[in-house]
Amino acid sequence: MSRRRQQQVFPGMWQVPAGLMEEPEPARAAAAREFTEETSATVDPFDLRFVHLMHHVSTGSGSRRIAFFFETDRWHGSIGNPEPDKYEGWQWYKTSGLPEPLPPYLAVALQHIADGTPYSEYAWPANTALA
Questions:
Q1: Where do the Nudix hydrolase domain residues begin and end (predicted)?
Q2: Whole-number pLDDT of residue 53
């Protein structure tokens, strides 16, 4: 995880490598690209394992988002910090001792991943809940 520097979204909070998908890019390819952009290491998209999908409302902007979460234990190269203006550097943490603060959606998603829950919804207004 890395602490975000003073950015527009979640400043000062800890984050995993993440970002937006580009057209035309499937989710695993986007995750692999973002991993490389943010850590300098490379990962084969086929070495990424899907672990969670969260449909959430951004607590910052109010936009609706779908977040795909993948994990891997295989990458090439060293984990670095190619974007020092955005991140303070990458550190490893056990799920039982995650740093704070985390973006609210991420804290919830990581707990679902630890519990083995493949899908969740977060921060939807009460009147949009399923009956």
A1: 1-115
A2: 98
